[in-house]
Amino acid sequence: MSEGMAGTFREQHNASRRRDGLRQSEATVLVLAAVLMVSCALLLLSASGRSLWIDEHFSVAIAQESNLSSALAHIIETERRPPLFYMMLFAWTRLAGGSDLALRIPSILWTLLLIALTARLAHVLGQQVGLGALLIGVSPFTLLFAPMIRPYTMTAALALAATLAFLSWREGGRHRSLMAYIVLAGL
What we know:
Distance between the termini: 60 Å
Number of domains: 1
Largest sheet: none
Helix content: over 70%
Shape: globular
Radius of gyration: 22 Å
Structural class: mainly alpha
């Protein structure tokens, strides 16, 4: 085979691999989008009409404080967790209201982020992206506990984001990834 023919063959082969990679990437995005839509529907169904659990009332009490300083005082007095979730919930109630379903939406959004981050971690580790995301998204455990008005899913999503940042730093040694890891782990 002449050098010109070998070069042409190599170029065609590389172009074919890029097309296959793009098709696989597009398929992965479509699978993840489908998993997220199904999970969102299941989470909303799970959250609808459910009465508040006792520990959720603590979160609601903070969110319904009359002002931010009262909310912070309430957090310091009653919670042993960082205030990020409660501050977010306080702001959210000003935007979306205080119905049980409205109060559950931030946790549902954090769960959807957790599912997407699970897919990303599966991709980084070379595993089945759709399967990992699907297992989290339709798990009875997820459907029961994820819509709770508590910081559980936010904490899990931030921990997974920190893990991804750490892996990125370890692979590439970029300082930005290390800083992201430190910030995310501290939240």
